Amino acid sequence: MNLDFITVLFLITAIGFVILMVLLPRFGPHYISRLTCPSCRKTFNFHWIPGATITSLIRRNYRVLKCPYCHTRSTFDIMATRARAPKTTKVLKGAKIKAKA
Ligand SMILES: [Zn+2]
């Protein structure tokens, strides 16, 4: 079997893509922030991975997110609201949103 440069490059890209998209969000280090919506005052959990996207590298600790309750876009400080072990209450249970930060 003869592997040329393009084939090797393609394989590296494919493996890297799988690691970035499948393995890291499930098993890798990710944080959970408990955010409070400024317009409807409801709390929801936000899952994020540090440095996963280009936007997260530029914006650092801030994310523009849509509230799952009132669907209003607002900027959240996800670093200050970071929680290591979130409590699962009845209010938060239905409001879990999963997103790549
Ligand atoms: Zn809201």
Task: Provide a descriptive summary of the structure in words.
This protein is an alpha+beta fold and 101 residues long. The chain has a domain at 29-98. 33% of the residues lie in helices and 26% in strands. It contains 3 helices and 6 strands. The protein has a 4-stranded mixed sheet, with no helix packed on it. A two-stranded antiparallel sheet has the order 3-4. Strand 1 (31-36) and strand 2 form a beta hairpin. Bound molecules: zinc ion (ZN). Zinc ion (ZN) is lined by residues 37, 39-40, 42, 67, 69-70, 72.
Distinct ligand kinds: zinc ion
Number of helices: 3
For the biggest sheet, the summary is: 4 strands, mixed
Q: Secondary-structure element order, as H and E?
A: HEEHEEEHE
Unreliable segments (pLDDT under 50, ≥5 consecutive)? Answer: 85-94
Strand content: 25-35%
Total strands: the figure is 6
What keywords describe this structure?
4-stranded mixed beta sheet, alpha+beta, 26% strand, 101 residues, single chain, two-stranded antiparallel sheet, binds zinc ion, 3 helices, 33% helix
Gist of the model:
With 101 residues, this protein is an alpha+beta fold. The chain is elongated, with a radius of gyration of 17 Å.
Topology:
Blueprint: H1 5-27, E1 31-36, E2 43-48, H2 54-59, E3 62-66, E4 73-77, E5 82-83, H3 90-93, E6 97-98
Parallel strand pairs: 2-6
Antiparallel strand pairs: 1-2, 1-5, 3-4
Bound molecules: zinc ion (ZN).
